[in-house]
Design brief:
It contains 5 helices and 2 strands, in the order H-H-E-E-H-H-H. By secondary structure, it is of the alpha+beta class.
Length: about 90
């Protein structure tokens, strides 16, 4: 695996890429195995557990107050994002 991770050709082609994730830090992952002439996908770290819960519930029509109640009653879990970031999402949902 070290050979793959350090292969300059795989890195240059974007087949192996480094991504940054807030809690995990920098790590290697698989890039896009397909190459397109007019499109280069941006490879990012996987979302944290619950990272998009507030956004999804907001799109479904829940208010910030309703989302806070669901979290308090443990219907949905706390997200993996920082408390400050979560508070911003809840404020936007209101």
């Amino acid at each position: 695996m070290k050979e793959i991770a350090n292969d300059p050709a795989l890195r240059a082609s974007g087949s192996v890429v480094e991504v940054q994730q807030e809690e995990r830090g920098t790590y290697l992952t698989v890039g896009c195995p397909m190459k397109f002439s007019g499109f280069t996908p941006k490879i990012t770290g996987a979302p944290l557990l619950g990272e998009h819960t507030t956004e999804v519930l907001t799109e479904l029509g829940y208010s910030g107050e309703q989302i806070a109640k669901l979290r308090k009653e443990k219907v949905v879990g706390q997200s993996g994002i920082s408390r400050a970031h979560r508070d911003i999402h809840i404020a936007r949902a209101s």
